[in-house]
Amino acid sequence: MAYAWWLVLVLSTLLAIHNQVGTANATLDIGVNYGMLGDNLPTPADVINLYKKYNIKKMRLFDPNPGALNALKGTQIEVTLGVKNEDVATIASSQEAAGEWWADNVEPYVDDVLIRYITVGNEIIPGELGGNVPGAMQNLAYILEARHLGGMKVTTVIAMAAMGNTYPPSAGVFTPAASSVLSQVLAILDRTGSPLMVNVYPYFPYASNPKDIRLDYAQFTAPGPVVQDGSLSYQNLFDAMVDSVFWAMEKLGFGNVGLVVSESGWPSAGNGDLTTPDLASVYNKNFLQHITSMVGTPKKPNAAIEGFIFAMFNEDQKPAGVEQNWGLFTPQMQPVYNVFG
């Protein structure tokens, strides 16, 4: 009997592994940003079906678009829901204003859509609007607490432009302007058990200095360590950038706050030989593998970091050049290059 039980266990395990190999059966523990700055994009219902087809279980929306949220009802796709930058100051102005925003944009969907994060603004720290982020976060966090919605978290999204230094990673520090606001933001995140979100694009430092930054270092393909930072070895630029943010948070006294990479990707056109479908495919495949392997970073080994690819579609209403060429799919829902299978 013991041998038979062991054999059944082994066969069951092998079957599970087999089912996870093909993308038709595997759920991808990675998100994709669903941007809508195009005049030729599919309907939200068709987009949701595309997420389902490729078993993508996480979506980031930049604003509470009713069409997308209605299409998401009952899907169990985890949603990161953005507050538009222009709405942040209003939400911060009073608890009543925050309640009105919630009633209009979240309440109609909260029972049927799996909203995991609400992001208060996108890349507005530092900046004129950034000072409103802590107040808006606090007002929305109060609503979540009052409604006992502990599974939903409030955070914000920063760009690497909030960093005053990133090299070496242990020298990572926020700019003085960002630090003053992020100290308040991080205190809220620490209290509520929420992560900070950061947009991390190795493409940009590589494209600005391809002479000194190796392509394989930017694309996760270096055969060995490229940067040594004390006892920590870095084989890819992505980890170095992420760890610089971890170091910056630690220097503000919030070393226990987690990170979610809310955007990363590589454009497939728009900047000559630096932006090809092959390069975009290599980066995003390796990014997907890196995130789903849950290996963490040299500073935070084995600490899983959630990640989102930017973006679902090429969007023709963005500025010409690389900005229109981040999509995994054409507006006709055809793959621009291979990532998932």
UniProtKB/TrEMBL annotation:
It comes from the Eukaryota. It catalyses: Hydrolysis of (1->3)-beta-D-glucosidic linkages in (1->3)-beta-D-glucans. It holds the Pfam family Glyco_hydro_17. Its EC number is 3.2.1.39. The keyword rRNA-binding does not apply. Transmembrane segments: none annotated. InterPro entries: GH (IPR017853), Glyco_hydro_17 (IPR000490), Glyco_hydro_17_plant (IPR044965). Keywords: Glycosidase, Hydrolase, Signal. One of its GO terms (molecular function) is glucan endo-1,3-beta-D-glucosidase activity. GO terms for biological process: carbohydrate metabolic process. Belongs to the glycosyl hydrolase 17 family. This is glucan endo-1,3-beta-D-glucosidase.
